[in-house]
Amino acid sequence: MNPEFQRNVWLELTPLRLVVMAAVLALAFFAAALSNGLITPGGVARALFLVLVVVWGTHNAARSVVGEIRDRTWDSQRLSSLGPGTMMWGKLFGATVFNWTGGLVCLAVIAADTLNTAGIAAAFAEVVYYVAMGVIATATSLSASLIGARRRQGRTNIEVFLYQVAGLAAALAVAVIADPTGSSIGTFPRTDTLLWWNRTLPTSTFLLASLAVFAGWMLTGCYRQMRLELKLRNGPWVWLGFLAFMGVYAAGFDAFAPLHFDEITARLMLAGLVIAGLAYVAAILEPKSKVQLRWLGGEFGRFHLGAALSHLQCWMMSYLVAAAIAVALMVRFAMLAMGPELATTGAVLGFVTRDLGVIVLMAMLTRRRGGDLLALAVLILIYWLLPSILHSLQYYGGQALFLPYRTDPLWMSPAAAWLEAVAVWAIAVTQMALSEKSSR
To answer: What's this model's pTM, rounded to 2 decimal places?
Structure first.
């Protein structure tokens, strides 16, 4: 057995806790059975699963590494012979083993309730849904705590709460999008079938399969974060594979793209937007080390392309893939003589380049942990406050200085975007050079 998981089992599954858990669950289900139809045991089981696994489980997952850091035992664990896979599985399911023990009892009641009312297929779908929700939520909290640990954060209760909130947000997204019963508050109205890559698929089956795949990606993300925390290097191929998957997955929903674009263009646009969004998320979350950035710049300067490309951070790879898609779109728009669309795509790529430069620059300028929050504040200023002021002053063309805005002449917005991008990155590179000189 996994030694880290076994250690957590000994700590979490004490006889007293198991007796209390069994008694509470039995009394809750018995009370629901005697309520004359006001509430069913299945309804109670669903609520208790959310409380035990999603709410309480995300808290325990967020604390699994943070607690070791607080107790000053994490360094000794990192120096042990346990590999990242053993440590990840042991922390993720060991710290939450008590929650999952109660959750499995609830799942049995949920399956029995749905089997009695809707059949075996519906019961299987609901079990998959709740298991995937629990795995995604707890894995998100653990991954967030590992990211915080790498950023030299994660020791205060507020930060642990934020890691738990990340898991709860993931669970809410699962509930809103993929609830097979359609009973979640705010669940998107949907039809029985959907169109994906020109194939008509059952909506519930597609969403459940998507949940299972995304749960697998979340577990992979936890494993890679644990590798980094144990001072092992991650290669680029897993993240590139994830980008390829997300691009293909998003491109299949071309029905959501504007109607006046052809199929190929619509799919490229959807893939590019999703991957560009991942670049923003990764740039905010990943630590931005001046030493690493200077090393990458030196490797590219000496044309050591293999070493440099293999050490790119996730946001850098995401940007390069998004840029490649944007260039393909611009070539396509040029071939189709679609000048406004060509200019808009060039402006979007320029502003994405500028925004990533802003995130890096704020990290270079601030020595404490507020660089990413400051970057978010600057982006809000650029994309909302300043354009709103210009709009109120009825200077509509001026909005092209801050966000993609179709103007006459068409080149104004892309020119502004790339001038700003060059300026921001020049300041960021200068700041890195100055910090290198001051450190000598």
So the answer is: 0.90
